Amino acid sequence: LVGLQLRRMLRACRRPGRTCFRANRLKAGPQLFPRLRAAGWRTSSGPWCEDGFFLEDVRSDAARGQSHAHLAGEVYFQEATSMLPVTALRHAAERLLASPGELAQGGRLQVLDLCAAPGSKTTQLGAWLSSLGLDEPPALVANEPDGDRFRTLRANLLRTGTVNWMLVRGDGQDVGGLAPACFDAVLVDAPCSGEGTVRKFP
């Protein structure tokens, strides 16, 4: 990037990002938002995901991270753009569910999150799969090769009450060979340049 394009990118990177969270329907009841409002949270609906919301106040990250709603797994702080891949996969997978005979495991939906840690998309997938109410519970497999990130992923799955999951710690290039033709949907949000995080750490 040079000239005007570079200046526009730098200007965009200096603009603070909006804090977004996802309401976790596995744990959050109807009193979640009244309690959040009572605690001083001002929220507005986010794009793409019906459970996504912007936090409009300016509380510190530490305060949000120590809130009861976060620690209890009722909310998961997640970039709005991070919710989009799961929303796209969800629409594709729901078309498969309309024809159960096409599922790889004979009627049981199986989903793989190939690059899963720290777990924002994995827990989003888990909440959606649980909401389907299928007779045969869907299976969620999450892969993460890094040891520290693997432990963070596991902790977030437990904190959010996600069910019917299995963790794999391996190279993403090898996972398909371990379970060929096993998954109906695969989410791959691969490690990238990280340019989107510049706003967080200018």
From TrEMBL:
Residues holding S-adenosyl-L-methionine: C115, A116, A117, P118, G119, S120, K121, E144, D171, D189
Keywords carried by this UniProt record: Cytoplasm, Methyltransferase, RNA-binding, S-adenosyl-L-methionine, Transferase
Domain of life: Eukaryota
Entry keyword Cytoplasm: yes
Entry-linked SUPFAM superfamilies: S-adenosyl-L-methionine-dependent methyltransferases (SSF53335)
GO biological process: rRNA base methylation
GO molecular function (one): RNA binding
Occurrences of domain SAM-dependent MTase RsmB/NOP-type (ranges): 9-202
PANTHER family xref list: 28S RRNA (CYTOSINE(4447)-C(5))-METHYLTRANSFERASE-RELATED (PTHR22807:SF30), NOP2 YEAST -RELATED NOL1/NOP2/FMU SUN DOMAIN-CONTAINING (PTHR22807)
Annotated family: Belongs to the class I-like SAM-binding methyltransferase superfamily. RsmB/NOP family.
Protein name per Swiss-Prot or TrEMBL: SAM-dependent MTase RsmB/NOP-type domain-containing protein
Native species: Alexandrium monilatum
